[in-house]
Amino acid sequence: TADSGEYQVLARWDTPKVVKGVSFLLRLTVTADDGSEWLVSTARTTETTYRFTQLALGNYRLTVRAVNAWGQQG
Question: Residue 29: which domain range?
Answer without folding.
Answer: 7-67
